Amino acid sequence: MPQMGASVAEGTILEWRKQLGDWVESDETIAEVSTDKIDTEIPSPAAGRLVEILVDVGVTVDIGVTLARIATDARPGEPHDAERDPAPPVEPVAQPAAPPRDPAPPVTQPASPSDTPVDAGARRGAIRRYSPVVQRIAAEHDVDLAAIEGTGREGRVRKQDVIAFVEARGLADPVGSEADEAPLHTESPYRPEPPGSADGQYKPPEGRPLSRMRQTIGAHMHRSLQTAATCTTWIEVDVSPIELARREKGMTALPLIARCVISALVEFPQLNAWLEDDVHTVHEQVNLGIAVALSDDDGLIVPVVRGAQDLSAEGLSRCIRDLASRARARALSADDIHGATFTLTNPGQFGSIMATPVISQPQVAILDVEAITKRPVVVTDAFGQDAIAIRPMVILGLSWDHRALDGALAARFLANIKRRVESYES
Amino acid sequence: MTAGRNTSTLTYLQAISDGLRTEMRDDERVLLMGEDIGVFGGAFKVTDGFIEEFGVDRVMDTPLAESGIIGTAVGAAVVGMRPVCEMQFADFVSCGFDQIINVAGKMLYRQGLPVNITVRLPSGGGFSGGPCHSQSPEAWFMHSPGIKVVAPSTAEDAKGMMIASIRDPNPVVYMEHKHLYRRVKGEVPEGSYETPFAARVAREGAELVVMTYGAMVHTALEATEDLDTPSGHGRASIMVLDLRTLKPLDEQAILSAVRACSKVVIVDEANQTCAAGAQVAALIAEHAFEDLDGPVVRVASPDVPIPYSPPLEQAVLPSVDRVREACRQLLEY
Amino acid sequence: MSSSVRTRYPRKSRLSAAERKAAMATSSTAARTGPNTPSDSLPEHLTLDDRVGLLRSMLLMRIIEERLMKLYRQGKVPGSFYDGFGQEAVSVGAAWAMAAADRLCAVHRDLGAHLVRGVAPWRIMGQYMGREDGVTRGREGNVHFGDHRTGCVGMVSMLPDMMLVATGMAMAFKLRGEQRCALTWFGDGSTSRGDFHEAMNWAGVQHLPVIFVLENNQFAYSTPLRQQFAVNPVERAKAYGFLGMSVDGNDAEAMFEATRAARARALDGGGPTLIEAVTMRMHGHAAHDDMKYVPKALFEEWRKKDPIDRQSARVAAQGVDVDALKAEVREQVEQATQKALAGAMPDPATATDRVFHPRDADEILLEDGAAPWSGFKVTSSGGRRSR
């Protein structure tokens, strides 16, 4: 039962224009319904055979209740309209600064993740078989398997081939940032709205179940917010010394900032701790988790730099790059992703300046490093004279668990990082 | 759990001895029973020196009666002892089959009385032992409810699993591979520790996983050291999963490995039909279907008694070459 | 034992000083090995209460089994039904001589042993009817049970496997220096299996405090003795190095005396004893067996030796109202039946429970059972009882 009007809560079937067993075209009127606002015709959401009517004439049901079922399988001997068109590409999540993709598919054809690649392959004239995992990955990333060259026996598409295809497709879009390497982390992706269809009628998009990875991440985030008393404190930092140092060393700012954070953690070990069921464990060793985005929709993973307190900035840089590349190649071991005592996340490459990161349980804090932006700031010279200078500034956001520490400690910790960054000497 | 302890380099056999000795010192209820284990120190010398330390009351030279050893062990266990039975060769356990399967295995379910016995089975072939001294009969006991089955492959695990098996309140069949006794050495933590009944990743990998246990773990590691990845860019990244516990199987580790690697080779030294690997394959087919990028491949001994003459025996037992070839073909699929 | 040992045996199974003294007192009596105790002489170790108790237990066994047979025919007892009709003295008489700390392995015609040890009749009947509150909670059927809280280990169907389990228990007692023994029953047919030999040999070679009661009831299902062995198995005991004796299995007091003596011998370090209890299986192997293979004359001969009739005559001669006793037992069984019938069937969802014992759960061991013999009661004088 569609919602026709913001305050409409229910509707009544006045008449079924199609009977059980009838063929119905997409958009063809299938029923007439009455609400307290309007009597209206309902166009069919898809083409197919009407196989089940669930609500009879004269019955009133709530908005959202299923009224009937249409089988969208092809008629015997006749390929269905939906099967002739190519699978419409859905906007991939987390494309860094990607230009908008090709104009969205005709909205009358809802994106169906189960559009069979076999049919697509049939167009090539050869029967290609795809293993279960290949099909699953292709479905999750909306890949047309017919477009992939296989390196398996007799040209078979292997799992590694699909993964490589997906990653290459991700990297093919211009990154457009100063960083030498692919961004570690992406958040708040922007997706342009699909333009309205030619005839102006609104077709609600069809939802897809979240991928397993997305569900897992979601559950962890949700659980963290429900468990911890999460607060966020921000501080502005002048990163001029860091910018200077990173150009000299030929690395990104992250390892240098990380080095400062680690030193601050050594001074403030209460932030390098775990809180589980009221048991508070302060760690001496700093195992620094670095949030890395896997390609496309596969979400986040947080590999761990173990014993980070013993690494220099160069060491950290090397370690972070190695972990990130292994993360994307799915070659991380269980040890690589367990045991983090503090997490660093760095999504700032797209211009966002502040965030409220979610603490990774059972840690007590997480530090977010957003975009480095040139800003006019007030500087005081040696004679106490104020002037305006242009400085590269970054806002560090620390989410911390109020069950384990107070705002004052969080602020002091951030101040410590600020002091180290602003006085950094390589 | 054992991090930070001193370790010594022990053979697999010494590690088993160490496990037995450690637990016997800690728990006066532990009683060793077997043929020739006391004065002689055991056919393979696992219990050498034990009778001097623990006395005849705790290191029992039994009559030649496998059913007797296991049946009396059940009786001793239900009145509070912790018997550890040694079958001189795994092959001879068939003489005590009834007592393990029907008396020990079912006692808890049927009568509410747990039976804490451990049955050590020196198993496996590779040294011309012939058909009656070379068997790997773990599947007989996996199939029977109420019995746990473990099969360590390293010295460290051999000791930890020995101690854990004795402490487990259920009947545990402990497969100790004769071929590993003196050929495998490792760093073994000192003192008392338990190895959990769970699988162990012997080598990390991403393109294919070999799942196996016992002596075949070492065969698998050797076979997959230097395979090339099919795309031609360097070494293939092959995981080796040491199952360690056969009943219960570590289903989570198995399915997780399939999720990571998508190609599976399962190696059994035992005869192919209904070996442990068959159960692993069934588990994967049912619960990891969507993670598979190729058929589940098994390498096992054919369904023949293990022959005596070296060329025949080597043709039957899964060799490094056979395992390597199976992996190579599946990698390329 | 090493002084660094951390886990030690629980001590609760040890006899108290008084119990130990009583046991030593009875063991100093010369063992009686004659085949029959004349029924009119006063038994040395049995009071009138004991003699009545023997009769009561046998009556309980018979009446329970008769009631269960009816329930079986009414479809309330699933599976098979076995009974020990005519053999009640074998289990009751022998069990009567066992101390609380001793351990027993009974088989399918020894229901009386469970009753002597203290299993409530209603739970036994619930057990046969597969109820949740039966002894095995529906996991095992009919008499294949042993309530570990009464010191009994339930049988397996592969006879005589339990001979080895009893041997093992006796072995543990000896190793730990405890004044306890184990006893097991088994049938004539089962002596043909290897476990009989292994147990007899083991018990003999290790000189263990175990009592083997061979219920020779003339038939193993349909197989008569002459097709079962070439020598009478009681003769074999000597070949294993210990005493074997033949006892009138239908005389509860003779069974008691032979077992009492065997126990005393065992505790005195005299090793195992094989007691052949000569009796007759008066019903079929199971309820589905009509026993056509048994000559009628044999039946008649043994009917005259019915153990309950004989014991009834004995105690009646001492002035006991046997009819009143029978009525009492019948009433007891009727109440037990009603209680058992009211019990729920097990929940199918629990069918896969209790296959493995969890590591962190409490240890479950055999516990002491009832030991009604007057000889185990401590007197104020602490000396030997004369009646």
Overview features:
heterotrimer, B: 333 residues, alpha/beta, Rossmann fold, five-stranded mixed sheet, globular, C: 387 residues, five-stranded parallel sheet, two-stranded antiparallel ribbon
> How much helical structure, as a percent, in the residues of chain A?
25-40%
Mean pLDDT across the residues of chain A is 79
Secondary structure tally, helices of chain A: 9
Strand content of chain C: 5-15%
Q: Element order, helices and strands of chain C?
A: HHHEHHHEHEEEHEHEHHH
Distance between the termini of chain A: 66 Å
Can you walk me through this structure?
- The complex is a heterotrimer of chains A (426), B (333) and C (387).
- By secondary structure, chain A is α+β, with helices and mostly antiparallel strands.
- Chain A has 9 helices and 18 strands.
- In chain A, strands 8, 11, 14, 15, 16, 17 and 18 form a 7-stranded mixed β-sheet that branches. A 4-stranded antiparallel β-sheet of chain A has the order 4-3-1-6, with no helix packed on it.
- In chain A, strand 9 and strand 10 form a beta hairpin.
- Chain A is elongated, with a radius of gyration of 27 Å.
- With 333 residues, chain B is α/β, with parallel strands linked by helices.
- In chain B, the strands form 3 sheets. Chain B has a 7-stranded mixed β-sheet, sandwiched between helices. Chain B has a 5-stranded mixed β-sheet with strand order 9-11-10-13-14, with helices on both faces.
- The model of chain B has no long low-confidence stretch (mean pLDDT 95).
- The chains are: A alpha+beta (426), B alpha/beta (333), C alpha/beta (387).
Give me the secondary-structure topology:
The complex is a heterotrimer of chains A (426), B (333) and C (387).
Chain A: E1 10-16, E2 23-24, E3 29-34, E4 39-43, E5 48-53, E6 60-62, E7 68-71, H1 81-84, H2 117-122, H3 132-141, H4 159-172, H5 212-227, E8 230-238, H6 240-249, H7 253-267, E9 273-276, E10 279-282, E11 288-290, E12 292-293, E13 300-301, E14 304-305, H8 313-328, E15 342-345, E16 365-369, E17 373-380, E18 386-401, H9 407-422
Parallel strand pairs in A: 11-15, 15-16
Antiparallel strand pairs in A: 1-3, 1-6, 2-5, 3-4, 5-7, 8-18, 9-10, 11-14, 12-13, 16-18, 17-18
Chain B: E1 7-11, H1 12-26, E2 30-34, H2 50-54, E3 59-61, H3 66-78, E4 82-86, H4 97-104, H5 107-111, E5 118-123, H6 138-142, E6 148-150, H7 155-167, E7 172-177, E8 185-189, E9 200-203, E10 208-212, H8 215-223, E11 238-242, E12 245-247, H9 251-261, E13 264-271, H10 276-287, E14 297-301, H11 310-316, H12 320-332
Parallel strand pairs in B: 2-3, 2-4, 4-5, 5-7, 6-7, 10-11, 10-13, 13-14
Antiparallel strand pairs in B: 1-8, 6-12, 9-11
Helix pairs in contact in B: 1-7, 3-4, 8-12, 9-10
Chain C: H1 17-27, H2 48-73, H3 88-96, E1 103-105, H4 111-117, H5 121-128, H6 161-176, E2 182-187, H7 194-206, E3 210-216, E4 219-220, E5 223-224, H8 233-239, E6 243-248, H9 252-267, E7 273-278, H10 296-303, H11 307-317, H12 322-341
Parallel strand pairs in C: 1-2, 2-3, 3-7, 6-7
Antiparallel strand pairs in C: 4-5
